[in-house]
């Protein structure tokens, strides 16, 4: 008999209670064979939604590297990792039958599809889920979904005073009472995965490797102490230390959010506690908020009016002109330099600042009048930090279909506030040579929204 330890969203050795499962000192030894498994969901990486591919090659490569590196790290502990590829329910069930599994242990899911898979597995096997990627993941802290507030402020006011995040567990070391399937035994059970070899390529990003993720955290918090100026730099558009860049490793699960939180507390105790250290925790609470909102509303988040209207999963409809505008937006050739520079950054690196994301989303939804779900689907494809709740939740938020009334940004005003001299735009679009903020002048071919006019008058070629 065996126990499958499903390491999806949990490919790490630090703070990983899934690996420690079955080693509780108080519990009798059960002699189940522990089997580490990860399943790459074919649909999540190879299917399309609204005609848009679900994942870029870069995002797939990031994930494949994370799996390969974790496999190596586990092999050093003489633990095998079975790598599955295909439809998760079918693949995991097949493996469970083959290994005569009596139970499956997994991270508590957030998104609807993963919830459905775990529910379906629960109908066939004893399944235990541990909420290892949430700050409020312990039984004592978990909010009730019935009384979960739908506004972030109310959520923060309710949960922040209670926030005693559970301690991260120690880095995993095999325990004598755990009997793991070895690397040699596991490799024999890996069938479909080899067909992905053609896509593998080294991607040195914090989301692609636990070690890189922990190095990023160490650099950002301890070596550079960039956390001390987070609040004043977080709205910048590009660069290495303006913000934490924890999002990709948090999204792929190779960095523990509880570990991050505790490192911030430690910094506050040992170095300084200021507005910036508080603000980084505040932003992590936004992540938390969307996670619980997704658990509360399930697939309503993919409906046209998300949690605000009747369920409508019909495909977004675009006029011929809007189709062209959407394609231009994706390619970063709208003719609005501030939008294009941000989209080119996304297309090139798989990341974009929070300020950039808010602006390109607002532009697509409110200035071009395009269904927000198309923007969310394109972000899903490109973002290396793609996280179902943070992505679809933020898009719905800006559209006014989520946890706020609609948020419209004035792109020219924003460009003048956050790229005063146009340096970011010129770096991304070197063909634009206008001096100072004049570089933000939109192309003459586009229709200028009325609300931009007074801000366009403020563009000047003088450096600020
Ligand atoms: C339209 C849109 C789509 C987005 N899609 C995603 C996504 O798919 N994945 C994702 O992780 N974030 C998403 N965000 C939130 C935010 O933009 C990114 O988390 C942030 O830019 C990542 O950079 P960072 O790690 O340097 O963030 P920091 O500014 O250093 O923040 C620290 C952490 O707090 C969390 N966080 C910060 N802002 C938010 C926010 N608004 N919502 C939720 N969590 C937040 C992230 O985990 C982040 O790593 C989106 C925002 C918008 C407006």
From TrEMBL:
- Cofactor(s) of this protein: (6R)-5,10-methylene-5,6,7,8-tetrahydrofolate; FAD
Instruction: Recite the UniProt keywords alphabetically.
Output: Chromophore, FAD, Flavoprotein
- Which superkingdom? Bacteria
InterPro entries registered for this protein in UniProt:
Cry_DASH (IPR014133), Cryptochr/Photolyase_FAD-bd (IPR005101), Cryptochrome/DNA_photolyase_1 (IPR002081), DNA_photolyase_N (IPR006050)
- Asked whether the keyword Flavoprotein is assigned, the reply is yes
The residues covered by the Photolyase/cryptochrome alpha/beta domain are 1-140
A Pfam family hit: DNA_photolyase
Paste the cofactor note: Binds 1 5,10-methenyltetrahydrofolate (MTHF) per subunit.
Q: Which family does the entry's similarity section mention?
A: Belongs to the DNA photolyase class-1 family.
Q: What is the stated purpose of this protein? A: May have a photoreceptor function.
PANTHER family per record? CRYPTOCHROME (PTHR11455), CRYPTOCHROME DASH (PTHR11455:SF22)
Descriptive protein name: Cryptochrome DASH
Q: Report the source organism.
A: Arsukibacterium indicum
Upper lineage is: Bacteria, Pseudomonadati, Pseudomonadota, Gammaproteobacteria, Chromatiales
């Amino acid at each position: 008999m065996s126990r499958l330890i499903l390491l999806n969203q949990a490919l790490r050795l630090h703070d990983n209670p899934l690996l420690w499962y079955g080693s509780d000192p108080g519990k009798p030894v059960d002699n189940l064979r522990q089997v580490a498994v990860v399943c790459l969901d074919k649909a999540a990486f190879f299917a399309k939604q609204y005609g848009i591919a679900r994942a870029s090659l870069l995002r797939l490569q990031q994930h494949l590297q994370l799996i390969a590196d974790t496999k190596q790290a586990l092999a050093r502990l003489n633990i095998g990792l079975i790598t599955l590829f295909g439809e998760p329910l079918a693949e995991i069930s097949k493996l469970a039958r083959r290994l005569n599994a009596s139970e499956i242990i997994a991270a508590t899911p957030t998104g609807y599809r993963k919830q459905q898979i775990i529910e379906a597995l629960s109908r066939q096997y004893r399944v235990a889920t541990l909420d290892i990627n949430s700050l409020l993941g312990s039984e004592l802290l978990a909010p009730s979904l019935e009384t979960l507030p739908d506004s972030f402020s109310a959520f923060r006011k309710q949960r922040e005073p209670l926030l005693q995040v559970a301690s991260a567990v120690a880095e995993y070391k095999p325990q004598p009472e755990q009997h793991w399937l070895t690397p040699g035994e596991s490799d024999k059970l890996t069938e479909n995965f080899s067909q992905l070899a053609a896509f593998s390529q080294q991607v040195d990003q914090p989301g692609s490797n636990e070690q890189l993720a922990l190095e990023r955290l160490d650099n950002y918090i301890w070596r550079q102490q960039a956390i001390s100026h987070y609040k004043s730099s977080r709205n910048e558009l590009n660069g290495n230390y303006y913000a934490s860049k924890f999002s990709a490793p948090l999204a792929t699960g190779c960095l523990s959010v509880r570990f991050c939180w505790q490192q911030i507390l430690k910094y506050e105790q040992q170095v300084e506690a200021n507005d910036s250290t508080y603000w980084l925790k505040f932003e992590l609470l936004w992540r938390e908020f969307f996670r619980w909102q997704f658990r509360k509303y399930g697939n309503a988040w993919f409906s046209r009016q998300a949690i605000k209207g009747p369920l409508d999963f019909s495909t977004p409809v675009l006029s011929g002109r809007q189709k062209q505008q959407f394609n231009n937006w994706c390619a970063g050739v709208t003719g609005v330099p501030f939008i294009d520079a941000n989209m080119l950054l996304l297309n090139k690196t798989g990341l974009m600042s929070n300020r950039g994301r808010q602006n390109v989303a607002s532009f697509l939804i409110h200035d071009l009048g395009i269904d927000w779900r198309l923007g969310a689907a394109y972000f899903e494809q490109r973002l290396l930090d793609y996280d179902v709740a943070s992505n679809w939740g933020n898009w719905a938020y800006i559209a006014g279909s989520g946890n706020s009334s609609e948020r419209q940004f004035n792109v020219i005003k924003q460009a003048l506030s956050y790229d005063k001299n146009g340096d970011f735009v010129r770096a991304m679009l070197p063909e634009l040579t206008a001096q100072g903020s004049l570089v933000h002048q939109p192309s003459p071919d586009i229709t200028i929204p009325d609300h931009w006019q007074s801000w366009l008058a403020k563009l000047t070629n003088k450096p600020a």
